[in-house]
Structures are given as structure tokens and as C-alpha cells.
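Sample intake sheet
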Amino acid sequence: MKSPSWLAWLFSSLFVISVALVGHGLWPGAKNQNATRVIVWDVSGYYLYLPAIFIHHDLKELRFHDQLLHDYGPTPDFQQAFRHPASGHYVMKYSAGMAVQYLPFFLVAHVLAGRLGYPADGFSPPYQLALLLASLLVACLGLALVRRALLPRFGEWPTALTLLAVVLATNYLDYGALAGAMTHNWLFTWYAGLLLLTPAFYRRPTAGRALAIGAVLGIMALTRPSEILAGLIPLLWGLQPAGAAVRERLAFWQQRVGLLLAALLAGGLIVSIQPLYWHYVSGDWVVYSYQDQGFSWLRPHLWEGVFSFQSGWLLYSPLLLVALLGFGTLRRQQPTAFWPILVFMVLFTYVTFAWDAWLYGGSLGQRAMVQSYAVLAWPWAAAYRWLLARRPWLWAYAGFAVLGSYYNLWLTYQAHFGGLLVAGQMTRAYWWRILGRYEVHTEDRLLLDTNYDFTGTPHNERVLWQEDFEKARNGQPCGQPALQGHCSLLLDKAHPSSPEYRIPAQRGQFQWVRGRALASSTLGEQVEGKMTQFVVRFCQGSQVVRERTVQFQRALQPDWPRELTFYVKAPHQDFDHVVVVFLHHGPATVRFDNAQLVAFDD
């Protein structure tokens, strides 16, 4: 009989592959077997170096980018590069690490594309499929490397349970199977390799191992510069926070300066690809390619990043709590690994959430943490070893693990197939409304804007304001055909705003307001911020105390009028009036009618 950890690896790998095939429409009998779109969004930015160099021979002007957007639409507009202010040439936004890793698979696809009857343009189906298959291969390899590192240290069952938990109960599944061409899956595998090489090096220091560690750190830093923190793992491995231990480590490196220089040389040669590229296209050796994005070192988004309903790391992968609790047992079971892994995880988490764009473009949970799961697998396995020796705790944990795995599979389904999860825009009220469900009312999507869900019985209802828009104001046109009566409020590019309706009101007069309007749009839901808004503001003088902008197109289908309702809780701060205004955004033409604001108590 095969070992439990091997069977767990096999199941995990096949599960990741199966989810990928289903998600990309490649399973037998799929309705759309041409649905594979891998080189999109950030991946297209990582990848763009390759067609620019090998197909178009144009790394400075990227003259092919308009045709690329027209033919394949990897992004709505050209986001992959920007004009350098001094040279006038394009500079890629993303560093070249992923392009280096994609290169062998790109070359195979490029050789086969023409022979298979596809355009050899870098983006036709053979290239898309090559990156998908490469990512699945990397995912299976990464899980195998994690197993190889854990097995001799923690045993069969702790290793098996760790592999299953990573795949079934965390957002690794999303970034291993469905978005595997992004950096996180590949970096996960590099971390797994680093955690094999590091203890092997300290058992028997050789030039080959030193070069390999340096090369791994180099490709990781070239992929994401912040991954240079991974260098802490080999530097601190086996080190204890004591003066004698530090002196012993310094003596170790003094005797092996050549190995240290070899590692630095290997890593430096790989990292040098980036400044050489920057100098070629811009004349500068260093270019900050993220422009207006940066770090807030003194105000990291730790609470939001870890716990928020919007995209909280542990809220969306709660089983990782077990891995964090496992640090206590890791110190006893594997003391040489404890301090390097702990120090690395603390700093890695801090840097991840010090980034101002801490949502990372909207993702299922925190995608920037996914690569660290190869490191967290060590305390996770230590926790499982502890649990397996304590049956009552194990049975209690089993229920948590089943629920956590189901929750993760439900999240993954809703993010890609069910449509209820709206990555990066989630709110507390909407999260609770959809939790565990597969269908909700379309109107519930308005909770993404209000974050207020009233489910009780209203008391002391009174109408604060109502408007039928029968009389045009301030040159506002009479929207035709009217949704009701003779006129409706019409909003489009030529008419971007309604008049502001000022309503006298004070704190303490009511606890809630209910907004309602009949609405129709020529287009359904659009990109966040590109939808027409029903705005409610609580104001004290000229100061806005609370504002909710409700995007009705979230719940509208084209040219299908609907009456929609939302709730907003009155603020505890003083206010002396409420303002209602309708604002147009985006390409749609929208009409409103029979709008009202009703105050009530709960």
C-alpha cells in the first residue's frame, strides 16, 4: 500500500488539475472548450516581454499593443507598461521574473502554433494552453517538494493532512488551479525548494547547494522584489537568539566565504536581468515601475488585510489559524526551523500589508500570502503531529477542518462560477447575506455599496422626501419614455447629475432611512465606479458625516425597469440635514422615477 502522504499528494495534484480543467472549459463535453484565457490581467504584464522580444522584436515601443488589445483583450486598456518620462519609451510595469520562467513553455508553444494552424503571435490558444499546463506542472511539483521536506521531519499523517489542508481549505486552490499562471503558485514552489535546499546545505555545505540557494533567491526576487525576504530563511536557519549562537554562525561563514560569494553571485546574475532591461529601454539603471503605488511603512493595513470582510486573509482561509498556532509545537519539534520561519513570516506579513494597494487588485482572500503557505506548512504539520497524539482535540479539529474545506470550495465556486463573491468589493452585510448560499435576490448586491442590512420590522415610518420627476429642474430633461407618469429623471453623459435635494433632519429623529426608486438602464452591471449612483449624505453644515453611493446597475438588467430598495443607518454623530443626489458614471443611460427616502426606527 502506498504511503498516506503519497496518496494525499496524488489526490491533491489530481484535484488541482481537475479544477483547472473544469474552470478553463477543457473537460470532455464542456460547452465552451475554447474558453481558456490564461494570459490576461497581471499575467499578460508578466508575459509581455516574450512576444515583444521573440516575435515583434520591439521592446521599447511595443507597437503591437493596440492590435493585441483588439484581438485578445487581456485588459480593457493598456496597463502592462507606461511611457518613461525621460526616454519616451515604454517600460514594463512588472519585473521579468515570470517571463524568464515562462520562456521554455513559450518557446514550445511558438514552435507548435503555426504547425497547428494558429497564429504564431504569442497569444493564440497554444500559448494560453502552454502557460496553463506549465502552471499545473509547477503546482504538482510544489506540492511534491513540500511533501519531501515535511515527511522525514513530521511523519506520514501530519504531512498528508497538511497537503490536503493547503489544497482543500485555503485560497491556494484558486491560485494553483484557476489563476496558476500568476506569481503565487510559482513562488510557492520556489519556497518549497528553498526549504529543502537550506537544511541540506547546513548538513553538508557544498558549492552546488550554495549556487542553487542563490539562484532560487535570485529568481524569486526577480519575480517579486519583496521576496528578497526569503533570504532570511537560509541566513537564520538553525540560529538561536543567543550571543554564542551568533558568534558560531559568523565563524561558520568566515570559513566558507567562497560559498557565500557563490550564492550572492548566482542570485545577483539573475536579478541583474532587470536593471539591464531598464537601462536598455529608459537609460536608467533603476526605474520605479509602480508609479503612484507604494508602501506605508508606519501605517500597514494589518487589520484589514488579515480580518476584513473585504479581503481578509484569515477570514477567507480560516484553517490557517491552525498553522499559526502550530508555531508553539514547531519550536519543540523542529527548533532549527522555528526562528527563521517565525521571523520570515512576521516580516513577510508586515511587508505584504504595508503595500498601499493591499487588496492586490481584488482577489479571493489575500493572494499575496499564498506563496508563504509552503513555509507555513512546517508549523501546520507540527500542529497536526500534536493533534494526532490527542484524540479528543483531533475530533474537535476534524469538524472545523470539514467546515473550513467546504467553505473554501464554496468560495472558489462563487468566485469563478456562481458569481456571488465579488472579489475586492465584499462588505460585512453582503458576506453574511450570501454565506453558504448558492442563490440570493439580485437586489442583495446593493449591500456591496451600503453595507447595511435591515431584517427587522420598521416602526414609526415617515416619508422624509419623495420625487416623481414630473417637473424638470435646472434644465434637467424629461426622460422619455417615462417609467411612470409623463417624465423620469434622465442621466447620461450629457446630463451627469440631478439637482441636489436637501432634506431637513437631525440626529435622534430616526434610526434608519430606506431609499427606494424605480430604475431602468440601457446596460446592466458595469465595472466598479462606472455605474450611476443614488447618493444619500448625512451632513452637518458643509461637512459630510456619512455617505452611501448605491449603484443600482448592480441589480438591473438592460432595459428592464425594477423598483429597488436599500437601507442606511443614521450616524451617531450630529447632522442637520440629509442630501439626496443622483450621479451618472459610465456608458449607460439610466432613468429614475418615484424616488423616496423613508425614515423609521427599529
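Comment: The CA atoms of residues 454 and 529 lie 25 Å apart. The chain has 23 helices and twelve strands.
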